[in-house]
Amino acid sequence: MKVDMIIANSFLMTMEGKGVGMIENGAVAIKDNIIVGTGTTQEILSTHRAERLIDATDKVVMPGLINAHLHSAGALFRGMAQDMSHWMQKGLWPLAKHTQEEERVRGSLLSIMEGVKSGTTTFCDFETPMNEIVGNYVKIGARARVAEVVNELPDTIGALPVGELYPFDPATGQRKLQKNICLMEQWHEQENGRITCLFGPQAPDMMSKELLLELKELAEKYNTRLHMHVAQGDREINQMIKRYGKRPIAFLDELGYLDQRLMAVHLTEATKDEIRLLTSKGASMMYCPGAIAIIDGLVPPVMDFVEAGGTAALGTDSAAGNNSINMFNEMKFAAILNKVKRQDPKVFPAWLSLRMATVEAARAIGLDHEIGTITKGKKADIIIVNVDDPGLRPVIGDPIRNIVPNLVYGARGHEVETVIIDGRVVMEKRKLLTIDEKQSIIAAQDVVNQIAQRAHDDIVGSESDLLKMMRADYL
Amino acid sequence: MKVDMIIANSFLMTMEGKGVGMIENGAVAIKDNIIVGTGTTQEILSTHRAERLIDATDKVVMPGLINAHLHSAGALFRGMAQDMSHWMQKGLWPLAKHTQEEERVRGSLLSIMEGVKSGTTTFCDFETPMNEIVGNYVKIGARARVAEVVNELPDTIGALPVGELYPFDPATGQRKLQKNICLMEQWHEQENGRITCLFGPQAPDMMSKELLLELKELAEKYNTRLHMHVAQGDREINQMIKRYGKRPIAFLDELGYLDQRLMAVHLTEATKDEIRLLTSKGASMMYCPGAIAIIDGLVPPVMDFVEAGGTAALGTDSAAGNNSINMFNEMKFAAILNKVKRQDPKVFPAWLSLRMATVEAARAIGLDHEIGTITKGKKADIIIVNVDDPGLRPVIGDPIRNIVPNLVYGARGHEVETVIIDGRVVMEKRKLLTIDEKQSIIAAQDVVNQIAQRAHDDIVGSESDLLKMMRADYL
């Protein structure tokens, strides 16, 4: 068979089956945007003829990583809200209130570049203005599953007041909903299917029951999923009890929200009973280890979710919280934070991190028919990771293999050399081929310089922990 | 003044004072191996003339990182003992027992290369055979503070038996002690003072009281410190109670061990009272967040140690446990694991991680008169970190600065471009100038291939968790 590309002589990690599906000295054949063959190098070379042969000796070939939850524009505020209390009110809000939509679009490209350069091929981006941000994914050539942020909070609300019940503004809700519908109409299944759309109710406490039901109905109509923060913190629980006398998951259950369409983000405050309810109904969990550790000092109950039979995926959340849109970072944190939470080194082994960033993630976001494993017939979203690095050597294969622990506990992301998305080489020798990286960085930096200037007085007025650190020479 | 080198236009983080000592648009002047001037670029350029001018625009210039505890030869077994119980007995021992001394020397170079390439300039290496391993530090040009591992355990003991009291063999103890003394005699203060030596009692449970006292006396005689694991696990506590009826720290106190000379590693099991005792006597703590999280699923009480007024330093421990000899990894883990332990995002701020890898580390290992800050008169151990990277952008300086959180929560180590040790450029544009990196990797890989072959039957016989994972396609 004549194909476009063969990647040969690799440690091929297909992620098929229950483990990592390792084929030593493995090869993949790609034609157009599809994987048309996998097997040993000998098998593939004897049955395929390729336009281009990539030698992946001393390299791991694996499915592109899936970032199941991020807010890409958060990169604008990277490093500006850590080690503090009230990170949203005192850290981000004084900056965010001075930020314009086109500036958010520029900022989002930083997150996407960082992600692709560390092996992410699919981004579940939950952001506004998504109708414009989606253009970044088109340009860079990444796969994206995107939602516009929908809530019913009046624009004048500012940082969310603590304690009081939020006011809802139905007109604002409808305006934001229309943007999400417009996104769906314009972009769903576009770019050869590389762009797909979700509905994005921000959280159960941030809109009326009516709007939640409208979104649910739309998700059914367009046969897509709902990307939504659920049980993400005390504040949400308090709002829901005050408004409805119920915790969020019980409330969502009454609304008929708990099914396979629900991609529930964080679940930091979910109890074991609530988790059993979620998993029994088929909802999936988006787990963001780094962000929740840095912002809240907590480890969400992902192990309970997995033990209850649920499907969970890893996400970076926002660079404004986590500082990092690098799934290698996230895989490592997931494993280590859960070992520490359970005080057991066997908990959350390396292979589970790899699965939650590939095959399980694909299932959790509803794209497992297309991506998540290296399987004949699936889309060619593939990364090549160089393990010939002092930090990843030695490599042994017999009688045990050390590649899986080293990818999770040792690799840093910069070992990713080549990124192929939908059959197209988007990064090679660590250089992005589809955009001008330097120029994109400068554009984002310019924007932030202006925001910081406009926000100056508000930041100074916030008297945040960070400002005190700055004055005392700790920053 | 005529100098050899000026590094200008940088974010200069001197680490002086109580914080990070940031000088925006700062410069450093170096003559021979000494820092001869620091200040703003204007100040330095107007008073110094340099042979070589390095432009560090968009770069952070900071003290080289100090890895306060590692076992460098552990890189031989990277990724071969994670996610399992009995990591020492079933993971490492089946390999270690088939490993020869010259093979350990080759393996150690992997750790050192990984460390230097991620900004480490000083290595507190606790390893055997140190008389030979020290040659790697000489060759690569790093600063090292080294100890030979001394214990009194018979060579035939193998993996330490659980439950029984270890037998001691005084002849073995004396043989190992002589190697440590020989190291001290041959290498202490050599290579322009770049190599200094410590005594290395492995742990209080692994030798007789008599040998411990002999080591203490030698440390006094040579006016150096003792690098020693203390309260590192249940097993040690049980041995000490069984043998002496005392917990290790109380026992060491009776022996007069608790003073400034003691560099106590791990302290995983130390109580608050024991920590107060240690800090009141001036002993320092070597804290290895990643290794202890992966091996034990625990977070040692470093915050208690700091709150009790003690001096603590970060270390990577062995790549056989931690998988990583990268201090950027360690800085991030230290901050995040302690936030989670205390369930408070304000705990262990980024600046504290930076200090525990530089100025506090220098104090903890007794080299603060020479290194740890960028200060006139100190040795020129300096790294240059590029922050013009999609994962570290944007950079803002006013009214708050985001560099410190980004270095700790965002940087991965590969952003280190240049490493200067004792005034000599050891790495430039990420290329090691002093050794053949490729050749050194191949040499280590060859050695491990042979060990894995020799160890084959013992690994298979171990029936470890890893072996089961391997058979089930999880590795």
Commentary on this structure:
- The structure is a homodimer of 475-residue chains.
- Chain A contains 18 helices and 17 strands.
- Chain A is of the alpha/beta class.
- Chain A folds into two domains: 2-63 and 376-432, Roll (Urease, subunit C, domain 1), CATH 2.30.40; 65-365, Alpha-Beta Barrel (TIM Barrel), CATH 3.20.20.
- In chain A, the strands form three sheets. In chain A, strands 1, 2, 3, 4, 5, 14, 15, 16 and 17 form a nine-stranded mixed β-sheet that branches. In chain A, strands 6-7-8-9 form a four-stranded parallel β-sheet, with helices on both faces.
- In chain A, helix 2 runs antiparallel to helix 17 (456-462), helix 12 (327-342) packs across helix 13 (350-356) and helix 12 (327-342) crosses helix 15.
- The mean pLDDT of chain A is 97.
- Chains A and B meet through helix 3, helix 10, helix 12, helix 15 and helix 16 of A and helix 3, helix 10, helix 12, helix 15 and helix 16 of B.
- Chains A, B: Keywords: Hydrolase.
- Chains A, B: Pfam families: Amidohydro_1.
Concise summary:
Two copies of one chain form a homodimer. Chain A is an alpha/beta fold. Chain A folds into two domains: 119 residues, Urease, subunit C, domain 1 (Roll); 301 residues, Metal-dependent hydrolases (TIM Barrel), CATH 3.20.20.140.
